[in-house]
Amino acid sequence: MTAQLVTYSLGAIYSAMVVYAFAFIAFTLDLARRASTRRVEVSVAAPVTVAATTATAGSTAVLDRPDSAAPVTPGPEVPARSRAARLGMSFTIIAWVLHVGGTVLRGVAAGRVPWANMFEFSLTATAIIVGVFLVVQLWQDLRFLGAYVAGFVLIFLGIATTNFYVDVVPLPPALQSGWLVIHVFVASLGTGFYGLGAALSVVQLVQQRRMAKGLRFIASVPDPDRLETMAYRLIVVGFVFWTFTLMAGAIWAEHAWGRYWGWDTKEVWTFIIWTIYAGYIHARATRGWRGSRSATLALIGFGAVLFNFTIVNLFFKGLHSYSGL
Amino acid sequence: MDSHRPSDHYDNDAPEKPIAQPRLGVVGYLRFFWRQLTSMRTALFLLLLLAFAAVPGSLVPQITSDPNGVIQYRAANPGLSKVLDALGVFNTYTSVWFSAIYLLLFISLVGCVIPRTKHHLDALRAQPPKTPARLSRLEGFRATAAAPLDAEGVAGAITAARQLLRRSGYRVRVLSGADGDSVSAERGYLRETGNLVFHAALVGILISVGFGGGFIYTGQKVVVVGQSFTNTLSDYDSISPGRWFNPDALARYSLTLTRFKATYESQNVHAIGSPTDYTAYVTTSENGGAPKKQTIKVNSPLTLGDTQVYLLGNGYAPVVTVKDPKGTVVFSQPVPFLPQDANLTSVGFVKIPDGLAKQIGMIGLFYPTECDPSLCGANLASVHPDLLNPVLALQVYQGNLGLDNGKAVNAFALNTDHLTKIAGFESANKVPGIDLRLGQTKQLPNGLGSVTFSAIPRYASLDIHHDPTQLWALGFAVLVFAGLITGLFVPRRRVWVKAVRRGDDVVIEYAGLARGEDPGLDAAIAEIARKHSQQLGLTMNS
Ligand code: HEM
User: Fold this and answer.
1) What's the pLDDT score for residue B404?
2) What's the complex ipTM?
3) What is the pLDDT of residue A293?
4) Is ligand 1 within 6 A of the CB of residue B455?
5) Is B202 in the pocket of ligand 1 (CB under 6 A)?
6) Buried b or exposed e, range B499-519, using 16+ CB within 10 angstroms
7) DSSP per-residue codes, B451-498
8) Quick one: closest CA in A to B271, which residue?
9) Which of B302, B517, B541 to mutate to test the interface with A (most CBs of A within 10 A)?
10) Are B458 and B224 in contact (CB under 8 A)?
11) Which of A44, B107, B245, B492 is buried most deeply by CB count within 10 Å?
12) How far apart are CA A175 and CA A104, in angstroms?
């Protein structure tokens, strides 16, 4: 019974990977099209200054200002209908359904939440990244990130199935806790938001570089200011989840190990990541640090997240030896 | 505007051109230094520095969390270890440089938060600001079509706007100016409150943890099934007390380990023998009261008095009985063995200083389930953590145990400097080691006597903690979290509604201003404009 479910689960994940590959191709074609589309020269506006005060840049309000004297920063232009982008979205949705299905089956097979070892955590965290990506579409067109998301998830699932795979085994006593459900799940949520924030920051840096070289922006991709604002909003949500992860982890550590903080390697890295992102949030509020500097911090932060999940789990000694490898 | 935020905060106006600097006195320098320390740039720099400084401690084992790792690391890298020692890297998180960074950060934080708090308390009592002259330059600007309103109509419109904004949680102020009557409204003071609570609570956590260290004590105790532990200083195997620890204040209780149950997976072929549950059954008595039956599990410690008792490990404690040649028992007690692997191959040390012709020491290896030699070869190995086929293998030494010179002795080691091996691999007299099955007795070499493997109880290794500041830390953590959410997601915004006279007609204008991140500002103004204009029967000029 369990073996059968495990097989179905893996089957679903492999199928999801195939469909993600199609999605990746479609989104890449879309990007290529965007990059080659001619577009009217864009005027880069400074944040609109208001008499006596300074308004925050990047508010969604900028578009409906009928008689504004200031030049208007163009928002994301509604992309011309792109077959490739639509196809990419459809593939992504299909792949995601398979992906979630495979993850849930794995949980059913194990008779518990599907995030108790590195393999399972990889399935869940990547499913959350795609889930956030899809949900955010309802509010904001982020299809230009499709190639990044599909590519990233594809690579990660590839690594997970080949290098992290472990059979379903019962939970060791230290992991038998309600905190496993909440602590690890919220950490995955945080990772999902941080990942998309990093994606937006990459695009922001690309746009900025093009700007610096006097090139056009990639057509129908938002301008750097707007990208930065979107990245900030996602990362701030990620930060809230991460803060919760840190605190829930401390409470769990108190239950399992008898102390809430002991500078265990995993604790150290969770703290490092938290501090980097606190720095990022500060950077956004510090004059001279908006733009490429804060975007770079967002990337360093996500780099630390990935490092924490891969290198620290596999090669560092500590109490969190839950990789199952 | 927010002059009490650090001067390099994004929302502040750009700094004035540096004027010709007057010569700075001592006070001037101090003030200059303080301003630097409490600037956003410094906070940012210190935060990133703190993150960076935390890295080495994760690369190198730490004395507090992994003392054995440190010993091994020093042995493997003697040269590098000298440098690391000098820098305090084996104690990163209590090192001078790490402490300096976070203390500076927190001084900066306090210096930043106090003036902001004062300013915020004033702001909470202040009125919303005057309505700007031209709303059309602001965010979310929209206006109604011109309508013929008389003075009474305008007054009604203003009252309606005032009530509408009041109901939506704004603080309002009605103004009348040359260019028209208006309502100025502001909301979201909670955002700044949340931010201040967040930062202040961080200080709270730091103080709780800092002071907590002084009151905490943590002790370890190995209890074999059938044995008891009394919470007195002398009964601990080891204890690390904080600075203000008072041994007389130890809560009075005792516990007896009546049973230890370990459950191992037996169905799942991928995980045969992996542990699925550990439960310690104890009988406790507080203040000499009636005994109570309780359990301790890995994720659920037991609260006794003002301490928590954790189940952090377990293993086997073979009962070894040694008799002299006449048959008198000279030693008979359970000896806790340290597990070495997942199948609980365990190592232990038996020391018999008195009663035999010579002092003897024994190094024992215990295999709960000996592997069938046809499968594993001649070398003993354990293939399951449960007691399916237990074997105790002893190597025997005779000579001087070194117990008499008053030095503290490690129960989990045997100093063989002054001992001769008399049974076991490559022993002096070529006598093989002594392998015992449960209940078996064998003779010791040199006619010293006999040794019996009498019983095999489990032991539980318990950690006992007392931490009175834990709840404080938790309380501040909750405040940090609540402050964070309010500080990040409550929008702080100003909204203005203004009746502007255009010849004989009147136009109602709406606009707002975000203070800090506020993605919903435009929608909020649209909503206010819609409700207000509908209420007055005006059409929007779209
Ligand atoms: C332990 C060190 C610190 C940490 C972890 C930290 C963390 C944070 C976080 C997470 C936020 C955003 C959350 C919110 O707005 O409630 C924030 C905002 C802020 N912090 Fe800190 N902070 C620290 C120290 C400081 C210091 C030293 C200063 C003053 C120089 C400072 C000034 C501010 C200001 C002004 C904001 C508001 C930013 C904005 O307007 O968006 N913080 N901080």
Assistant:
1) 67
2) 0.87
3) 92
4) no
5) yes
6) bbeeeeebbbbbbbbbbbbbb
7) EEEEE--EEEEEEEEE-TTHHHHHHHHHHHHHHHHHHHHS--EEEEEE
8) A169
9) B517
10) yes
11) B492
12) 19
Cβ proximity of A98 and A157 under 8 Å: no
A296 touches chain B (CB under 8 A): no
Q: What was the pLDDT predicted at A219?
A: 63
Please give the angle made by the CA atoms of B266, B269 and A98, to the nearest 5 degrees.
120
Question: Does ligand 1 lie within 6 Å of residue B315's CB atom?
Answer: no
Measured between alpha carbons, how far is B399 from B362 in angstroms, rounded to an integer? 11
- Using an 8 Å CB-CB cutoff, list chain B residues near A257: 310, 312
Query: Could B10 and A284 be called an inter-chain contact, meaning their C-beta atoms sit closer than 8 Å?
Result: yes
Q: What is the pLDDT of residue A57?
A: 36
A282 CB within 8 Å of a chain B CB: yes
State pTM to two decimals: 0.87
Of B180, B76, B131, B27, give the one whose Cα is nearest residue B506.
B180
Lowest mean pLDDT among A28-42, A232-246, B310-324: A28-42
* CB within 8 Å: A173 and B474: no
Query: Which parts of chain B register pLDDT below 50?
Result: 1-3
Amino acid at B79: G
The Cα of B488 is separated from the nearest Cα of chain A by a number of Å equal to 8
Q: Is there an atom of ligand 1 within 6 Å of B516 CB?
A: yes
* Residue A264 per-residue DSSP state: -
- Bridge partners of B339, per DSSP, are B346
Residue to mutate, B198, B199, B203, ligand 1, most ligand atoms under 8 Å from C-beta? B199
Closest by CA position to A52, among listed B524, B172, B2, B143 = B2
Least confident of A93-107, A127-141, B376-390: B376-390
Which residue in A167, A263, A278 is closest to B57 by CB distance?
A263
Q: Does A268 touch chain B (CB under 8 A)?
A: yes
Average of per-residue pLDDT across A145-172: 92
How much is the pLDDT for B497? 95
Residue identifier of the C-alpha nearest atom 29 of ligand 1: B112
- For residues B292 and B304, the answer to whether their CB atoms sit within 8 Å is no
Q: Tell me how far apart the alpha carbons of residues B385 and B337 are, in angstroms, rounded to a whole number.
A: 13
Q: What is the pLDDT of residue B17?
A: 52
Q: In angstroms, what is the span from residue B199 Cα to ligand 1's centroid?
A: 7
Ligand 1 near B105 CB (within 6 A) = yes
3-state SS assignment for residue B240: strand
Q: What is the pLDDT of residues A202-217, one digit of tens each?
A: 999 988 888 777 766 6
Report how far apart the first and last C-alpha atoms of chain A are (Å, whole number).
24
User: What angle in degrees, to the nearest 10, is found between the helix axes of B151-167 and B521-536?
Assistant: 140
What is the C-alpha separation between A170 and B265, in angstroms, rounded?
Answer: 7
Cβ–Cβ below 8 Å for A251 and B474: yes
Tell me, what's the pLDDT at B407?
Answer: 58
Q: Supply the pLDDT for residue B3.
A: 46
CB neighbourhood size of B83 (10 A): 10
How far is B529 from chain A, CA to nearest CA, in Å?
14
pLDDT at A209: 86
Task: Write down the pLDDT at residue B180.
Answer: 82
Residue A72 has pLDDT above 80, yes or no: no
Any idea which residue has 């998180």 for tokens? B93
